[in-house]
């Protein structure tokens, strides 16, 4: 199977089973081997006591992008370390786009950078994720 087709099928399978990404309203815009672009709209119930969006929302969008990008090669991958910098506030109604890009890929470890931007293209968060590749292939048949 061609690499891009594998990536698309893995992400489709993951989304079918990912109730949380579905609850967030995540839409998969693009999937390539080692990369993924997601979009979601921030809802009022995602705000915190400061009337801005809880930082966990941008984190979760980035984490989903990490999961999809890192599994897109057809091998199960799980995060072992993540970090995020929130650089601008997010508000209800904002449309967030998370873009994950592979920085390094080895037989067991992968490193990814994810930028999260709002509808104006303003970066609101920068995320880094390291994953462990289990060696177990995704069953796609």
Brief sketch in words of this structure:
The chain has 141 residues and is α+β, with helices and mostly antiparallel strands. The protein contains three helices and six strands; from the N terminus they run ααββαββββ.
Word description of this protein:
With 141 residues, the protein is of the alpha+beta class. It has a single domain, classed as Hotdog Thioesterase (Thiol Ester Dehydrase, Chain A). The protein is 27% helix and 43% strand. The chain has 3 helices and 6 strands, in the order H-H-E-E-H-E-E-E-E. It has helices spanning 3-17, 19-24, 55-71; strands at 27-32, 35-41, 75-86, 95-105, 109-117, 123-137. The protein has a 6-stranded antiparallel β-sheet. A hairpin with a 2-residue loop joins strand 1 (27-32) and strand 2. The chain is globular and about 45 Å long. 33% of the residues are buried. The mean pLDDT is 97.
Query: Using DSSP, what is the number of strands?
Result: 6
CATH class call = Alpha Beta
Helix/strand/pairing category: alpha+beta
**What is the H/E string?**
HHEEHEEEE
Query: Going by CATH, what is the homologous superfamily?
Result: Hotdog Thioesterase
Largest sheet: 6 strands, antiparallel
Tell me the fraction of residues in β-strands, as a range.
35-45%
Question: Which CATH architecture would you pick?
Answer: Roll
Query: For the CA atoms, what is the radius of gyration?
Result: 15 Å
Low-confidence segments, ≥5 residues, pLDDT <50?
none
Number of domains: 1
Rounded mean pLDDT score: 97
């Amino acid at each position: 199977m061609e690499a891009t087709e594998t990536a698309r099928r893995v992400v489709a399978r993951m989304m079918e089973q990912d109730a949380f990404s579905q609850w967030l309203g995540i839409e998969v815009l693009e999937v390539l081997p080692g990369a993924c672009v997601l979009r979601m709209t921030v809802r009022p119930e995602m705000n915190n006591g400061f009337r801005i969006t809880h930082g966990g929302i941008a984190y979760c969008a980035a984490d989903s992008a990490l999961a999809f990008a890192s599994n897109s090669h057809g091998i199960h991958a799980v995060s072992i370390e993540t970090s995020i910098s929130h650089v601008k506030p997010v508000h209800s109604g904002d449309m967030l786009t998370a873009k994950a890009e592979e920085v390094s890929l080895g037989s067991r470890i992968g490193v990814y950078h994810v930028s999260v931007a709002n509808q104006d293209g303003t970066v609101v968060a920068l995320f880094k994720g390291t994953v462990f590749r289990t060696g177990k292939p995704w069953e796609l048949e």
